[in-house]
Amino acid sequence: MKLIETQLYFYLENGEKRSPNYGYVFNVGLPKKESDYFLATEQIIKDKPDYLKYLKEVKWAIYDKNFERKTAYHTWIHTAGLVKGQSPFYKVEENKMEALFTLEGQKTEFFEKIRDRGALTGESIYFWGKRNGKFAIYNVHTGEKLTEDFKSSVLAGVILGRGTYFVGSYGEEIFYIFDLITGERLTKAFDEHKLIEILKHGDLERAVDEIGK
Q1: Which of 41, 47, 66, 154 could disulfide-pair with 167, CB 3.0 to 4.6 Å?
Q2: Neighbour order of strands in the sheet with 165-171
Q3: Is the dihedral of CA 148, 152, 176, 198 positive or negative?
Q4: Alpha carbon 212 to chain centroid distance?
Q5: How far apart are the first and last CA of the chain?
């Protein structure tokens, strides 16, 4: 499927098959052969100066390879997940809050922030969600909160589908490794320099052995 851009609008075509005109289409998903879906707005914005500034002032939806709209219109939809062929989930932004949806409907509550890696990208069934300024790990299928609150979120371990360990921080750039299943804290405190070293190899089991309690 080829994405065509004109002076005023975008459309997709494949031989004799041609989509309706859209105000903007992201060159992700169907146009890149990553999935059967693409993200578009029907509202024309290219007639405005510096039109890219208007991307967050229009409504967005996900469409399939038959050019049928598959979702409701939203203030913003992220391309990670469904559109990129990574998972059945897509992230919606409304009123500066974020939630995960599938084509069947809303799957999580709205959070102040949902980190992109994990459930959204198909790497695990878990995600970091932020509420009241604090992060915790949640199960995307049940909505259950699985950890205590942390100051920051680290994309490693169980979030990325690797083992059951994760990294949490209560603040002051001091980190610990925990087991998601038992809730046990497995290491003594370590600093950001050690965290960077750990993230380079990504093996939290090895890090537990190196750091110790």
Answers
A1: 154
A2: 152-153, 165-171, 174-179, 190-191
A3: positive
A4: 33
A5: 55
Contact 183, 168 (CB under 8 A): no
Evaluate whether 51 touches 57 at the Cβ level (below 8 Å).
no
The span from the CA of 25 to the CA of 45, in Å, is 11
Task: Determine the Cα–Cα distance for residues 128 and 112; give it in Å rounded to an integer.
Answer: 11
On the question of pLDDT at 164 being above 90, the answer is yes
What pLDDT score does 213 carry?
Answer: 83
Six token digits for residue 97: 């809050």
Give whole-number Cα distances, 196 to 29, 158, 176, 191, in Å.
32, 17, 13, 9
pTM of the model: 0.93
| pLDDT above 90: residue 65 | yes
* β-pair partners for 144: none
CB atoms within 10 A of CB 203: 16
DSSP character string of 18-79: EPPPBSEE-SSSGGGTS-SEEEEE-S--TTSTTGGGGGGGS-BEEEETT--B-S--BSEE-S
Extract long-range pairs of 177-181: CB within 8 Å, 24+ residues apart: 177/204, 177/207, 177/208, 177/211, 178/147, 180/126, 180/137, 180/146, 180/147
